[in-house]
Structures are given as C-alpha cells and as structure tokens.
Design brief:
- Chains A, B, C, D: Keywords: Dioxygenase, Oxidoreductase.
- Chains A, B, C, D: Residues 9-122, 152-273 form the VOC domain.
- Chains A, B, C, D: Pfam families: Glyoxalase.
- Chains A, B, C, D: GO terms for molecular function: dioxygenase activity.
- The structure is a homotetramer.
- By secondary structure, chain A is α/β, with parallel strands linked by helices.
- Chain A is 19% helix and 34% strand.
- Chain A contains six helices and 17 strands.
- Chain A has one domain: 2,3-Dihydroxybiphenyl 1,2-Dioxygenase, domain 1.
- The mean pLDDT of chain A is 97.
- In chain A, strand 2 (34-38) and strand 3 form a beta hairpin.
- At the A-B interface, loops of A face loops of B.
Chain lengths: 318, 318, 318, 318
C-alpha cells in the first residue's frame, strides 16, 4: 500500500536565519509575504492566499538552512496511518510534539540526511479580519499588493548525498509519488521531484555536492502569472537583492522561475507552472538523462555554477 | 464514507453539433485543440498537454449540447467502489460499455436531469510521435501554437432545474466536494462548483431558467496565462467568432474567463485560475448570497442576460 | 504650415479635487504615483519614469475637473512659433505666466469650451537622488512597486459641445494631428483623438452630453504591460475604488483600458497600447461610423451609460 | 541644424540569406511575418501592423548579412534637406534609384563601414483586402496569430570598427539622436543607440570585434507584450530554432529581449519596451561605463560570448 492520498499537501517550512531583521524585512516588504504573528524567536509568515496561519516560519539562529518541514495529513485517520508506517519504517522518529502557533499536535521524524519532518492534521487556519479581509470571500486574505506578493507556498528543495535513499524515505513516510527525476550516467539519481497531490511537485531533492549534511537548497512560492515574476525581478533589482539566475523556464516541470538569495543567504524562488497539473493517477515518472540536461534549461540557459554548490548553511572550509 | 479520492479527474466531454465541419474547424484552427482521430461520426480532440487521447469528443448530431461526460477513476479498485455506490444510489444506471477510441470499459449512469455520465479507469494515453513529439519530454505532445492553444481540459458547466438534487447526485456518485456555491434568497441553490481533486472545480451546475432538460452551459479549457486569453480574444475577433462576455474575472473561483459560442451555438470558455488550488482537505464551502452576486463579477462586470438563458440545445418556443 | 513637430508632448494635467486628502492617498498609495512636492494647495505628482518633476498637479478646490493642461514645446524656437500662431488665431489668450514648481514660463490660452491650456519649454526635470535613485540609470527614478505604479503620463480626455470646433483649436494651436475620429450619422464629430508625436493620442475630445462646460472626462497613465492593468484591477477592488468599466480593449486606438473614479469623482484610466505607434508621417485619419461603434469595444463590451454622462465637475440639476 | 525630425522612421531592412527557402519558412511560419509579395530573388515581408508593404526584404544571396537599410523621410521637403546634407557630407553617395516593389524613388548612400542606406518618402502602403482585412479598421492588416507574430519592425543593429565615426555618420545623414551609449575605459565608444523619433532606438551600432566589414548584428520586431516573447521562446524551442540568449531584460533601453538565429545564421530579435518612449526633446544621452556593464543585463544575466563575436556574414578564418 502506497499511502498516496494520506498527506494533503506541504504545509510549512521553517527557515533559519542569522540575520533575522534583514530576512524579515526581505520576506515582508520585498518578497511580499504577510506576517501572521511574531514571537521572540520566530516570525510566522504566509502568502496572502495561504489558508493556514503560517507557511514560512522564520527563526532566529546562529546559522541558516531549514529547521523543519511540515506536511498536513488528509484526515486524522490518514495521519495515524502515516505515523504507523513511519514508526515501522526504521527511520529516526522524534515523536509527537504538542504543536506550535500555527498547528496542533504533530509527529516528527528525520530523513537519513538530517532534515526534520513533521506531519499533522490539526491546524490553525488564518482568520481574515479587519484590514486583512479580502474583497472576494473565497480568498484566504486580502491581496495586499506588497512586493512580489506570491499567492501561496509551492515547494522546497533539499540536498542529500543519496537521492535514491531519499526517495525511499519520501515514498515510505509520505506516500509521495515521483513525477520527474534525473538519471545520471553513473547510475545514481541526480534529483527527484515528489508530490503528494495534483501539483507537479511539492518537494525536490537534488544531490549534495558540497559535502554538507541536512542542507537546504531553496523554498518557493507560486505566483499567478509569469508576468508577476518579471515584475518581481525589477523589485529585487531595485531593492538590491542578489538575483542568482532567471527568469527562465525549467525543462523539468516546465516551471518559469526566478532565484534570489535572501539577506542571510538562503535561496528563495518564485515560480509559475501555468495550468500544468499532474492529473493522471498512473503517471509514469519522466526520466531526464545527462544528455537531456546538457541542453540547459528549457530555452537554453546554462545552469550557473552556484546553483550546484550553494546551499544553506554554507559548508565551512576545513 | 465520502468517496472523495476515488475519482481522479474529469476525463472528457462529448459535445454534439449540427454543424460538424464548422465546429471542427473552430476547435482545431481557432480554439487550438489537436485532432487525435476522426471517425464517420465523431472527431476526437485534445489540448496539446492533455495526456489522454481525447478530452473533447465532437459528435455529428441533429442537435447541440452534451452527449456524455467522462470521469477517470483513481484506480481499478476505486472504480469498483464508485460503481457499487452508484448502483446502490437509485440513480438511473445504463451499465457497462465496452469502451471507445479513447478509453476502455466504462460504467454509464444518468443524473436526474438527463445528463449521461461515465466513469472508467482503463484509458488510452496519447502517444506523441513524429510531428507531435514535444521538445520537452514531460509534455504530452508538442506545443503547436495554433489558435488559442489552451493547455488542458478544465471543467464543464451543466444546467439543472434543481441544483440541490444535482449536488446530492455528484456527492453520491463521484464523491465530489462542493468548493463554492450560490445560496439564493428563496432558499434554493443557484449554483454549485464541484471538484474531485485539487482544482477549484471540474464541474459546475447552475439553475436552468429556460425550461430545458439535460442542457449544457459550457465547456472550458485552461490556458497557462491570462495573456493567452487576451490574445485569444483577438483571435476570436479576427475569426468572426461570437464573443459573449469577457475577458474578465469571476468573483466565484477567481477565474479569469472568456466565453464564446462555437459555430453550432455551444458555449465554450477559456479560463485561467492562476496558481489557485484547493489544498485544504477540510475546505469549507464558500457560500455566495444574492447580495454578493449583485456586485457583479470580480471587477464589477454585470453578467449579461444571455449567460442566464442560453444553453444547448436551445429550448424551442412552443 | 501645420505646426506639427513644434510641440514635443503632453506635459502635465492639473486636476481639481474637493477631497484632497483622499485623492492624494488614492494617487500615491493605490494608483501608484510618486509625490515630488507638496504646497498648501497642491500636490505635484509623477509616474516613476516620467522625466519631468510633475505630470499630475492635484489641487485643492471646491469642485472637481481639470485646472489646466500643459504641453511642452520641442524647443524655445518652436514655442515662439506656437505662441505667435495662437495669438493670431483669435482664441482667447491668457498670456505668459512666470512658471510653477514644475516648469518655467508658460503661455496660457483657452479653448472655446473653457479648458485652460499652457505651453512651455523650460521645465523642471526630476532629479533622482537617495531612495529615488533607480537601479538602471536610464530610468527617471526608482521603480517603487507601489499600487498600480504606471510608467508615465499618457493622455487626457476632455468634453466639448462641438468637437469639430475643438479639432480646429487643436490643429491651430498645437499643430496636433487627428489619428482617429468618430463620424456621427448626424454629420457631427462624436470624438477626436489627437497627437503631437508618435503616440496614437495624447488628448481625446468627445462630445459633451450633460450640458456642462469645460468639463473633464479622464486622465490616463500608461503601464508597461496589460498584466499590470489586470493586477491593478485587483488593487482597486481591494481598496474599495469604484471600477467603472474594464479591463477591456478599445476598438479605437487598440488600447487595453481600465477606468476608475478617484475619491472626488474624477475619472482616471490605466491604459496599455502594446507596441502600437503612429510612425507614418502621412497617416490618414481612421474614421469610425456609428455602425462601427455599435459593435461595442474591441471584444464586444458595450459602453456603459455613465461613460457617456459622467464628467467632472458634475452638472448640477437646476 | 540637426536635421532631427526630417526622418520619420526606420522603414525596412534587406536581409541576405544563402538558405532562402529555410529563411522564408522561418520568417513566415515561425517568426510570424506576412508575405506581401515574392519575386525570383526576394520575398517582401512585413509584420501584421506594419503600414508599409514591406519592412523586411529577404534576398537570395551567396552570403548573409544586411543588403541595405531604408528610412522613410517625414515629407518630400525633409527628404530633399537630407539629400542635400548627405551630398555635402562627403560620405559615399550612390545616388537615386527608381524604387522597388515597396517604395518609390530613394536616395542611396553608404556609411564608412560598407553598410548601404537609403532614404525615401514615396512609399507603398499595404492595402488590406480579403483575408488580410483586419477586424479593427485602425490596424494595418489582420492579426494572423501565426508563429510569434510581432506587431511591427522595431530596430536593427550594425557592427562597425569605429562607433564614434558611425555616430557622426548617423547624426549628419539622418539627424539621429543618441539616446544611450557605452563609454569604454579605453576612450572608445562601445555602442550607440540612435533614434529619429520617440522610440528609444531604431538603430544600434556596436563595435566590431571579429575583423569583419559592413557586418550585421541583428534585426528586431516589437511584440505588444512580454508574454508574447515568452510564448515565442516555446515556439522557437518546438521548431528547433537556435535560441542564443534570453528572454531577459537589457539594462540599456530597458528592453525585454530574445535572440535567435534564423536558418542562414542571421541574428533576429523579438523585443518589448513596455510603455517606454523618449518624449523629452532635450534628452541627455545616458552613458554606460564598463563598470556598469559588468553587472550584466538588467537582472544579472551575463552576455554570452557569441553575442560579441557572431555577426553576418561570418568572418572567414584566413
């Protein structure tokens, strides 16, 4: 039994920053997320149409990278099924936590590369009131037209030294499907794109080349239109944000993309997949070879070097 | 047990036309679908990134409207569960058919208003070869940049004299969820938007005001960008196609839309929902009141009269 | 001698408002202009890429409508030629003024319908410093991504009881060319679109149907893309701005448009003409008949009633 | 006397191709120009909203590059003024020719680098009839939605070994203004952007680094929207066209661009400048330094090597 369907969607990502104020300014004023709440250690952020209270938890730290990754289960029963599967899997279990400002009790566990995951069903939905009230009642909150202002959390990308092993983890624990992957000539998997629903992917894992452990590659929010991303490029330019690469279109997943680094160095993406969805229940994984990849991105852009080497936290030279 | 999850997605719509050649010319050259196959009575059409062999079956007829609606099940087991539920439901069952050019055996049944549905799992996927081979292997076929060229089938809209009853039918037979609805002051439901997956809707049902039975309101394909729809408006204009209303944005579902009539009079839409998805597993139905609806569409456009009265086939004056 | 070429471009419009604070908030926070300076009576506004210090002078008043319209001459010599032509024309001359915060000495005169015009060459260019410094030095100032944030002033529209006479005024005084016009069945001109350069129009005049005198129909800024206007529609919606009509595409001039009313009731437009320019030096005026106009706007939208009757200041019932 | 204003606009470019059939197929089916006429040696092409009969004359040749460049004068008198100025300038004069299928008598002359120019007033305007009749009478012909389908000719780019000298040529002969330029650290001008009207540029000249003479860098047509260019990128991809660089945004002139090579190797661009125009009659040339240029294009893309070296015809190794 695959478990596909037990997990509803990627819920939130906790990002660590050692430049908390600058990072928070970037995410609220430039990238255009909304601040739901702030504690001494963390800011709880969300896109204007994210229905949950928080999809990006920004946490003060002495380093950068990812704190944990939260997925919401499809039902209380589905949550129990996943917990049972995880407990039986042999992967490292951290156990239940009481919850956080943005969700109820959650079950935490780890992948073999040190990334912390949690799954939960009880959540805190954002209550749009006052200045947050949307003009259209089917939106989670008011479109605040601030900065890039993406609509919702889309996906994240992790690094691991063994993507084949990471794949087994995702299939076992979350029931994720692999929609696309890179098959290297050396027999290894170069990258895998996972989904638990109709999105093309909610998590990607690519091979770690920097010798790091538990590292983070990027987190991505979705915009409604590609034009929103072109406009965002100007916003980043005018605000002195480091644009790493893009806008361009990925061959893999057809995603129109733009990558920048937030002030602490974590990579952040804006992406638009158009109307593309994975609706086919027996979708066959698309396999990209090294020869395919040599063509560059969809329109020929060569992947720049830092994209292969930069992850957070940075790996210290010995 | 709700049955949600048993059906994967809307698969195809059969549209009847009494002007077959003109309709086929419209759908291939202007609207921009691809012709997969043609028999003496029907043309099997699909958008360039529809993975199935056919999503619009255009059939010669002495009338217009909808022939039948096909949904694909998530698995053979899920199909059996749905068949059992339908058989126990008391709705009119037509039983199994052997299949068609575009899918295997299918189970047919009817809603109380005369629309024919079928569900199936075995399908015919489009094999992209020769001139249809896409440059990017994760696309179902080559982007042929002909006419409006939408990416995929999105949804259809049916008319019924009792939307509350139609809703019971959709929930019982397909396990559909209602994401949004119109609650009239007279206690009736004015319209319901249904989904079986993460799309905001794959089928809408609005109240029949013309005295017709089993009528069809429109079928819709999704474009990647809103700009595709603005461009399509010029294409329709230059090709003498009747533009009924739009482009504008629906308040309900936030969909950017454009409605035209194909040569035989069937209403056809192009739509773009941006990055909007229904990811929340316990999404609460959004209820629009008559007072809400008086504000017009999202940006204030008043719904034009023909939108309330025109369906196919037209109702003959007695 | 036509005088075409003597005037470089429309420079600024003075708009009167009896709700100064609300109007200023609208133009800066929602419409997205920048405030260059403010005096006790006026705010000097400009779009982020307008090179002059002010293109919209917003002035406190006990009424609404247009204060005056400024055009910049192509050179000091061209200015003198125009002044001479105007003085010889018999149109009402107000004479030279010393200047304003946003330009040097200017020559003022009136059309027969009470609108005040001025022409000038000496101007005040915006000096982009500090937070206004653009990332790209060929922009007039930083793209501030606030509200709709159009790029530059585009055109204005005045009402007159005799468009034929208004046309003679524009040709005589400014050397304007008529690129398009509406020829009514009754022999009158329903509207004229004028230009002094390669833009399709910088001023339109349409027939006054409300019995007013010297009234104003709207002022328009240009956005880079049509998507900017769709996005602006959401911004207006979320900020409670009255959207009168649009977004849609004008048949005349092919302009993609959106009309709203600023808080005091003055009509304001956002427009995008794509790459359309009038490059032909012997362009023949395009004449639209009433029959043409009955087709509605480019994609069929019917012109709403208020568009024919609402001007500022409103005409008081007797 | 500057002569600015005497020339109305860039009229047409003659491109040489040693793969005539392939080039013609590219320009009509993929790039989306319309064929006005064809002779034994040339195809006369135009964009759908170009008012002249031909803006790209594609000519069979044993080489590639540019045949000649045509500019249309603002009036017969302006043409005479320019001819006189050119004759007095000392630049090489070829003299009057009778005309071509696309224009009347023209005066031909050469820049010091071997590029042939001609100026003319009498032209052949495109008569839109039959299937070319546009739905909107203010368009030059029907929007045919074929391939990339740009709206109009925009500019071309030539190579010269001495841009300072080329600049003198353009100012003297055409009265062109320099809106932007690159000032190299070695004192030379790296590139100049010229205009005769309100467009930011109609001709650019950049320094020849390949040792060629009279070479051509690219010709460009303008699209209405940036989205048209993103869509075109997919069209080029699906048709096997070599995409050299882009889509991205130039820092210089703010132009959103995409460069491809037509089958014979001539570089062709699609560009969109948004609403940007040069309206200021005393616009001061924007000077970009080498330090500025090191930042890459507007959003950081590094200029690829071939952009500096590839011109047509190719320079043969000795």
């Amino acid at each position: 039994m695959s478990g596909y369907g037990d997990i509803a969607h990627l819920g939130h990502v906790e990002m660590l920053t050692d430049k908390f104020e600058e990072s928070l300014d970037f995410f609220t004023r430039v990238y255009g997320l909304k601040l739901s709440a702030q504690t001494e250690t963390s800011a709880y952020l969300r896109a204007w149409d994210d229905y949950e209270f928080c999809t990006l938890k920004l946490t003060k730290s002495d380093t950068t990278g990812v704190g944990h990754i939260g997925y919401r289960a499809a039902s209380p029963e589905a949550l129990e099924r996943r917990v049972k599967a995880i407990e039986e899997s042999g992967y490292k279990v951290r156990g239940w936590i009481e919850g956080d400002l943005n969700h109820g009790r959650a079950f935490q566990f780890e992948d073999p590369f040190g990334h912390v995951f949690e799954i939960y069903f009880d959540t805190v939905k954002f209550k749009a009131e006052g200045a947050d009230t949307p003009a259209l009642k089917n939106n989670a909150s008011r479109f605040h037209h601030t900065g890039a202002a993406p609509r919702r959390l889309d996906h994240l990308n992790l690094l691991s030294s063994d993507v084949t092993e990471f794949r087994r983890f995702m299939e076992t624990c979350l029931g994720s499907r692999v929609t696309e992957m890179i098959q290297l000539d050396n027999g290894r998997i170069g990258g895998c794109w996972f989904t638990v629903n109709n999105k093309g992917y909610d998590l990607a894992c690519t091979e770690e080349h920097g010798g790091g452990h538990g590292r983070f590659h990027h987190v991505t929010y979705a915009t409604d239109q590609r034009e929103d991303i072109l406009r965002a490029a100007d916003i980043f330019l005018e605000n002195g944000v480091h644009i790493e690469t893009g806008p361009h279109k990925h061959a893999i997943q057809n995603t129109f993309f733009l990558y920048v680094w937030e002030p602490a160095g974590n990579r952040v993406e804006l992406a638009n997949a158009g109307a593309r969805l994975i609706l086919d229940p027996d979708w066959e994984t698309v396999v990209w070879t090294e020869a395919d990849r040599k063509k560059g991105q969809a329109w020929g852009l060569k992947t720049i070097e830092s994209f292969h080497t930069h992850g957070t936290p940075p790996v210290k030279a010995k």
